[in-house]
Amino acid sequence: MADPEAGRLQGGISGKREAQQRVEQIHAFRRELEVLARERLSLPDEVRRHLEAHHDRTLADLARLYDVDVNASQRRFSLGMRILSTLGGAALCMALVLYFYRVWGYLKTPVQVAVLVLAPIAVLAALEAVARRDRTRYYTGMIGLVALAAFILDLNVLGQMFNVAPSPEALLAWSGFALIIGYGYNLRIPLAAGLILAAVWAAARVVWLSGGYWTSFGNRSESFVVLGALIAVLPLVVPHRKRVDFPVVYRMVGLVLSLGALQILMHMRAGYLPLPGDAHSGLYQVLAFGAAALVVWLGVRHDLREIVNIGSGFFTLYLFDRLFSWWWDWMPRYLFFLIIGATAVALLAVFRKLRARKFAGRTA
Amino acid sequence: MTLSRMVLGMCVIALTNAVALIGVRSNRLGSPVQVVEFSQDELWMIETEKDDSSVRLRLNSGFEEAPDGTQRGFDRAKLMEIGFDLPPTADSARNVSPVPREAFIAFRFRQAGEDMSRSPEGAPVAARRAPRYAASRLVVVDAARSYEALRRRYPDSQKNPIARGVVYAHPLRVTGAPEAVKSGELPWQGHVSTLIPSEIHVPHPHSARLAPLKQSSPELRKYRVTLHYGKRLEPWVASVDLP
DSSP character for B74? Predict the structure, then answer.
């Protein structure tokens, strides 16, 4: 993906995300120079002119090579285009599925099979053709989603057509395909889908190994706690030097799976662990709060904003969940909401303190 | 790299489809393990969205009914035979929730003159099931972990079809609250949550004959469908007869 010309740029930029960071850095530098000028501190004219010219060239190069947003207006457009491409991809997937269901009753079996098998192959070929021309990656992302939907539709309908007993291995095939699209075309949504499908496949296999029917993986959410944690730490073992924005997807998918499963387990009175009902749910309540707090601490320590947000979001969810189940039935409503409000204020104070400590650590 | 990603993706598509189609072929190779004819009462036509042109059917079956009209289900001994690991009773305080298991399910057809308003013991049965559900002649009689073991018990595949299904175990809720229920000790019962596959697709040209019936109300539909079951007990529609 990287253009040889990109090597001219200083700072070892290897992807769009890093390029965008460099743009933000340049803008921040310019804003700071303006503030300093108002405070009667400025660089010599010649140095300032050199710097401005160099930054202008750098911005132009970054815009040309990585299609980054070089001003606020472009940034707003980009966000809109990203949302549009995701919604467009989802709408095209729906159109594909619904159209097939509309016509498949009129097709003979060999034609149905041919359409089902050839559709994802054709969309994949279209994806390749578009990816070679599409610098913005919006169309690539959209068609990547359609390719994944076409392959899911393919196996799903093929199974229905021949009354095949559902198998968890379909999840593995979909996961592999989604990961190929994600890594091959540098797309984050297929990557996330591939990781989730792989986790569901592994959880289904664990249930199957324990003697249960594979679709019962939802009855035993413990697997997702472990699998989510493994997915979250995977980028530490497998570094992504060329795809610097992929580790964040691993962390987010892994943590949401893991902490989401703990939210379910807090309410379950039975599972893989041979514990009486109250001890079972009690254990997972302690684990859930501990895990969310650990995630926040790790996020603050390693300066990973998305991790802090996920950890604090789940911590708050667990807290409200517990307060609701303990007090809602017997406590006067005004008192319940008063306690919720007071808890939110207390949490804000804790987060402010954490934030201040982090700032002090940086400036020290 | 740029081309290999596409080739790799295509290989996954081709390989997966090949495995699925080879599985279908191997299921249908040779003569079917059982051939069963069902009427519209056992094999319901699934109501599809107006944008769905397919015709799909679903097997409708039930258990023998207890005098209070509830479905009898499997008892603890049968559930243990299927592979469930259950304590003698379900303690309501512990909320043990066993994971559903796959099993082979044997059915029998109710005879034409069989009095469905009475339980096998002859007690009058309170009508609990909707008439459409109760119309099915297909009754679950047994379950086992292997097809061969079940077929040995029920050798006549015409009278006793066998299908794959998912069995779930739950504490029995008994009306009338006997002592066991009051103390929180509940007997176990098992039911079939779904058959595998849960739906049977009707291929062309059979679908063209059944499709017009989608417009009529379910009570007015009349048809007979013969299913062939292959080695993996995956069925397919062999013929459709309309009166």
Answer: B
Query: Which residue reads 């599985």 in tokens?
Result: B23
Q: At what angle do helices A277-301 and A333-363 cross, to 10 degrees?
A: 30
B32 phi and psi angles, rounded to 5 deg? -65, 150
Give the Cα separation of B125 and A44 in Å (integer): 100
DSSP string, B168-189: EEEE---TT--HHHHTTEE-EE
d(CA A141, CA A85) in angstroms, rounded, equals 7
- φ/ψ (deg, to 5) at B201: -80, 135
- Per-residue pLDDT tens digits for B142-153: 999 999 999 999
Extract the tokens encoding A184. 């091959």
Q: Which residue of A has its CA nearest to B1?
A: A184
Tell me whether residues A105 and B52 touch, CB distance under 8 A.
Answer: yes
Q: Do B196 and A184 touch (CB under 8 A)?
A: no
Question: What are the φ and ψ backbone dihedral angles of B203, each rounded to 5 degrees?
Answer: -80, 165
**Across chain A, what does the average pLDDT equal?**
86
How high is the pLDDT of residue A281?
85
**Is the pLDDT confidence value at A4 over 50?**
no
Helix axis angle for A138-161 and B2-28, nearest 10°, is: 10
Q: What is the bridge-based pairing of β-strands B101-109 and B138-144?
A: antiparallel
What's the token pair of residue B178?
């006997």
Residue A231 has pLDDT above 80, yes or no: yes
Q: Please classify residue B42 by burial: count the beta carbons closer than 10 Å to its beta carbon, then call 0-12 exposed, 13-18 middle and 19+ buried.
A: buried
Of A245, A279, A208, A204, the residue nearest A16 (C-alpha): A245
Cβ neighbours of residue B62 closer than 8 Å, sequence gap 6 or more? B71, B129, B133, B134, B136, B138, B139, B140
For every residue of A285-354, DSSP letters joined together read HHHHHHHHHHHHHHHHHTT-HHHHHHHHHHHHHHHHHHHHHHHTTTS-HHHHHHHHHHHHHHHHHHHHHH
User: Residues A239-279: pLDDT tens digits?
Assistant: 888 788 899 999 999 999 999 999 999 888 778 887 776 78
Q: Which residues pair with B45 in a beta bridge?
A: B57
Q: Mutation test of the interface with chain B: which of A103, A109, A111, A163, choosing the one with the most B Cβ atoms within 10 A?
A: A163
Give the residue, A329 or A150, on which the prediction is more confident: A150
Angle at Cα A261 formed by Cα A255 and Cα A267, nearest 5°? 145
**Is there a contact between A164 and B21 if contact means CB atoms under 8 Å apart?**
no
**Are B9 and A277 a contacting pair at CB < 8 A?**
no
- Give every CB contact of residue B21 below 8 A, 6+ residues apart in sequence: A113, A158
CA distance A102 to B51: 5
Given this model, what pLDDT does residue B121 score?
Answer: 61
Contacts within 8 Å (CB) and 24+ apart, A42-51:
none
Q: Say if residues B43 and B112 touch (Cβ distance below 8 Å).
A: no
User: What is the rounded average pLDDT of the residues B40-55?
Assistant: 86
- Give the torsion sign (CA, B91, B93, B94, B97): positive
The whole-number average pLDDT for the span A156-176 is: 95
